């Protein structure tokens, strides 16, 4: 028997140790392990071997299980097995934190108004008022007050779940800790930001200390708020503007403008440039007035937000999957700068798309240093659009050219133009590769597709790695501690090739943890955390599971819709198999899911019925049991769970509003009448659909009947 094996056996057998001896030994072990941990983690200078360390831990565990009452408050098992969290606790928002749809042109502002009128069935002369206010360039924060006391502050996160930053928010002087005369429950939402002057001073101080400086005030605000040590946040001059609310136990007001006035009265800072406007012309005038003051405001704004003023109309308009219908952000024009294009690199994405990336001589664009920009696709570089028409008057883009970079908001910078006068003699047009730079497979362009794609599938390392990165990403499996960098590391070492391998990591490489622990960047604590984070996702929600598969065209919200519709992964796979001919009931059923179009449905069916993909999913399902999707919240309504078809003219509301209302009441709205239809709402002029309903014996009501069912005419 080797020494280590003998020691291990002894470790596992506390033998005939007396209670007094055990107490002493546990004390010694706690000390020794604490020293070993400190040497390993803090000093990066281990004092004992991994094998010795493991034996000590096992001995400690064995003694603790033989003498549970002797377990110390500073027990090594507690400290390492359940380390203090290195991140913020997660918070589920009582009401989702939404983002905003964007408009860039004045014409889009007019379209916004026209669209709302149509949705609300308002004619051109009816009053439809808005508010206009600056769009603050910071990070949003939700403050929850209960009985007038701040009980929780949370960042937006993915909109559903954010981070608990309550102690940090309490250090911001614009944020009241108590409120008087507020509703019992009130969630106030707004933007944390840093002024230009404070930002400059912070960077000067950071530089003097040799500490990290920030690229812009928004990064400085985010970095300052998200500090585990709230005292650091306290030392940073953060500010807060309130502009919205989440859950409230009583309405704040009847209009947006009055609600903002109420927030001001409660003690919040609200933006003084907020103005009530009567229509698009006034909105645009306020946009111009705000834009004219932009440089002298002293803080960054990136546009003007327009919101419908009447809160009952906001309620009727409701939300799309991530944005309210009743608001829009009119963004300021993008910022521009000229620089040299040093190289064009090709990146291969998870669906095999070859994307050209411009490597630029670094240049500051609107306060941010830009050194990479997207070049979209080969046509864009050549100076034509997908239909072959000229863009940039046909000027192509070549390596070595002077190019104009632009950046709008958070999006990836783009190349807008090229300066031919500065083009060097002897330059040659860029030749877009026709083979994959990563795996050498042919890269094909399908007719009508602007993108050239690698045909290597899973043999292409770039596609495989990108698929894995997508799989672990925040909106998919969201495995903490397993980010893009770690995925690359594990992939390159052959530890993971496909999603299922992630769940086998612990069994394969975790024994004794040596393998992972000996790697650069990994300690025992982070390794244990990782295995725990992975295990936590073995029951991931079905919507995340589906999104994680990375199927083309199937985004986050579509994944949720599909998950809710089918409930289980087995039902999804079965539906794909039955719809493989792209016709028949199963196919129609897919297309009838609200929000699923033909392109998406095709991609879903094609991918899920491919042998290699299916085998990979089967291996994943041996490790993971996706939690069945929750049935859509059962709404207590007469139409909940029913499939409705609207036909003919509705007089009191638009089709769009009728559909949104029905969906909010838990019903599905289909475009055509079939055996599955439960109810047809027929207005004047209803034709073949009403006839078919009569044929099939389906219940049919008129608009008044529908309004009564929907509870729209309170008696
Ligand atoms: S209203 C439901 N108003 O912009 C509507 N948002 O791009 C919630 N923002 O996530 C947003 N200034 O962080 C609103 N005056 C303002 C804003 C504002 C900045 C941010 C907010 C939001 C993002 C959307």
Protein model, in words:
With 715 residues, the chain is of the alpha+beta class. The protein has 28 helices and 22 strands. Helix 1 packs parallel to helix 3 and helix 5 packs antiparallel against helix 11. The chain starts with a helix and ends in a 6-residue tail after the last helix. About 1% of the residues have low confidence. The structure holds 2-(butylsulfanyl)adenosine. The site of 2-(butylsulfanyl)adenosine has 15 residues, from strand 3, strand 8 and strand 11.
- Share of helix, binned: 25-40%
Number of domains: 5
Question: Any idea of the CATH class of the largest domain?
Answer: Alpha Beta
Structural class: alpha+beta
Strands side by side in the biggest sheet: 2-11-10-3-9
CATH fold annotation of the largest domain? D-amino Acid Aminotransferase, Chain A, domain 1
Reported for the largest beta sheet, the result is: 5 strands, mixed
| Strand content bin | 15-25%
The rounded Rg comes to 30 Å
Give the strand tally.
22
Main attributes?
28 helices; five-stranded antiparallel sheet; five-stranded mixed sheet; globular; DNA polymerase, domain 1; binds 2-(butylsulfanyl)adenosine; 5 domains; alpha+beta; OB fold (Dihydrolipoamide Acetyltransferase, E2P); 715 residues
């Amino acid at each position: 028997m080797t020494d280590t094996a003998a020691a291990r056996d002894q470790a596992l057998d506390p033998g005939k140790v007396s209670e007094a001896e055990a107490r002493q030994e546990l004390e010694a072990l706690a000390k020794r392990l604490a020293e070993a941990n400190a040497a390993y983690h803090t000093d990066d200078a281990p004092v004992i071997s991994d094998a010795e360390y493991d034996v000590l831990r096992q001995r400690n565990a064995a003694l603790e299980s033989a003498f549970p009452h002797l377990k110390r408050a500073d027990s090594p098992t507690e400290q390492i097995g359940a380390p203090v969290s290195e991140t913020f606790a997660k918070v589920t928002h009582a009401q989702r934190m939404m983002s905003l749809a964007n408009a860039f042109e004045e014409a889009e502002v007019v379209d916004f108004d026209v669209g709302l009128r149509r949705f609300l069935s308002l004619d051109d002369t009816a009053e439809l008022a808005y508010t206009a206010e600056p769009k603050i360039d910071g990070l949003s924060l939700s403050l929850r007050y209960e009985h007038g006391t701040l009980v929780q502050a949370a960042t937006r996160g993915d909109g559903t779940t954010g981070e608990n930053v309550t102690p940090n928010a309490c250090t911001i002087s614009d944020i009241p800790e108590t409120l008087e005369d507020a509703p019992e429950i009130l969630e106030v939402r707004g933007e944390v930001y840093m002024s230009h002057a404070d930002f400059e001073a912070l960077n000067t101080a950071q530089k003097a200390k040799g500490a990290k400086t920030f690229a812009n005030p928004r990064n400085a605000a985010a970095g300052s708020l998200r500090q585990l040590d709230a005292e650091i946040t306290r030392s940073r001059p953060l500010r807060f503007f309130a502009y919205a609310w989440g859950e409230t136990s009583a309405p704040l007001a009847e209009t947006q403008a009055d609600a903002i006035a109420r927030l001001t009265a409660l003690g919040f800072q609200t933006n003084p440039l907020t103005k009530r406007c009567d229509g698009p012309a006034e909105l645009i005038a306020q946009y111009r007035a705000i834009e004219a003051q932009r440089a002298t405001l002293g803080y960054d704004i990136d546009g003007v937000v327009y919101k419908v003023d009447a809160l009952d109309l906001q309620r009727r308009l409701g939300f799309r999957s991530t944005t309210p219908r009743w608001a829009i952000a009119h963004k300021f024009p993008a910022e521009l700068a000229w620089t040299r294009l040093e190289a064009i690199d090709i990146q291969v994405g998870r669906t095999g798309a070859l994307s050209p990336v411009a490597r630029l001589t670094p240049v500051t664009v609107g306060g941010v240093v830009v050194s990479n920009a997207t070049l979209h696709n080969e046509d864009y570089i050549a100076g034509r659009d997908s239909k072959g028409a000229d863009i940039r008057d046909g000027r192509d883009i070549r390596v070595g050219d002077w190019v104009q970079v632009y950046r709008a908001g958070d999006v990836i910078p783009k190349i807008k133009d090229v300066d031919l006068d500065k083009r060097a003699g002897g330059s040659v047009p860029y030749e877009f590769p026709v083979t994959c730079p990563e795996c050498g497979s042919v890269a094909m362009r399908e007719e009508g597709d602007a993108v050239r794609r690698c045909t290597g599938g899973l043999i292409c390392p770039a596609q495989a790695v990108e698929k894995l990165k997508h799989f672990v990403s925040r909106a998919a499996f969201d495995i903490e501690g397993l980010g893009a960098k770690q995925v690359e590391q594990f992939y390159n070492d052959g530890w993971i090739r496909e999603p299922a391998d992630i769940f086998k990591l612990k069994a394969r490489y975790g024994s004794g943890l040596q393998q992972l622990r000996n790697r650069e960047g990994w300690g025992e604590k982070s390794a244990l955390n990782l295995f725990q984070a992975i295990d936590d996702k073995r029951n991931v929600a079905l919507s995340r599971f589906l999104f994680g598969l990375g199927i083309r065209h199937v985004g986050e919200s579509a994944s949720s819709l599909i998950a809710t519709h089918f409930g289980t992964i087995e039902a999804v796979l079965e539906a794909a198999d039955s719809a493989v001919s792209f016709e028949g009931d199963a196919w129609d059923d897919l297309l009838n899911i609200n929000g699923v179009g033909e392109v998406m449905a095709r991609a879903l069916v094609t991918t899920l019925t491919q042998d290699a993909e299916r085998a990979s999913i089967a291996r994943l399902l041996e490790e993971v049991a996706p939690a069945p999707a929750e049935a859509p919240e059962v709404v207590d309504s007469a139409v909940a769970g029913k499939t409705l078809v609207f036909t003919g003219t509705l007089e009191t509301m638009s089709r769009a509003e009728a559909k949104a209302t029905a969906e909010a009441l838990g019903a599905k709205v289909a475009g055509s009448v079939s055996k599955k239809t439960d109810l047809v709402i027929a207005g004047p002029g209803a034709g073949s659909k009403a006839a078919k309903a009569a044929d099939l014996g389906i219940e049919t009501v008129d608009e008044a009947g529908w309004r009564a069912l929907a509870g729209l005419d309170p008696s």
